[in-house]
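Good morning,

Attaching, inline, the backbone tokens for the sequence recovery test we're adding to the shared suite. The designed sequence is right after.
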């Protein structure tokens, strides 16, 4: 299955796919506004701002599976991201990223890019997946990997 055919719902509740990003480089991130890593939103937004005109997008997928650090409904999540962190990159509806109810997108991402010691499961918020222009998952980054550390990898793909 192509990453571009997986159904997703944006933060406004509209159903779609990632087909609009076909041919772009993407950084897909499971986010949580209440997480200690939430300051990374600013770095993610900077990457999005700096490279979006070259065919790059950060895509945020809120998740509450880790210590329930994403509270509220999609509208509240969107407001918190915008007001607290200045986020205007695309956000999607809150999903599960691990376990039996994991969203198909994150099942695909974890099948394609394993974590430390070959683990498949996502361990925490702000796990990041870098996707090339052909829709291939090329690298997985840990929650502790700051967005600035990812920039050189993005430039290589652009």
């Amino acid at each position: 299955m192509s990453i571009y055919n997986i159904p997703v719902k944006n933060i406004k509740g509209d159903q779609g796919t990632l087909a609009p990003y076909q041919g772009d480089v993407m950084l897909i991130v499971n986010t949580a506004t209440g997480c200690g890593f939430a300051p990374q939103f600013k770095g993610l937004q900077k990457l999005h701002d700096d490279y979006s005109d070259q065919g790059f997008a950060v895509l945020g997928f809120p998740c509450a599976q880790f210590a329930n650090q994403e509270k509220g409904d999609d509208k509240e999540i969107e407001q918190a991201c915008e007001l607290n962190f200045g986020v205007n990159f695309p956000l999607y509806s809150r999903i599960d990223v691990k376990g039996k109810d994991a969203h198909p997108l994150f099942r695909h991402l974890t099948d394609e890019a394993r974590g430390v010691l070959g683990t498949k499961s996502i361990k925490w918020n702000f796990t990041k997946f870098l996707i090339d222009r052909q829709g291939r998952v090329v690298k997985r980054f840990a929650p502790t990997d700051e967005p600035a550390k990812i920039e050189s990898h993005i430039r290589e793909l652009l």
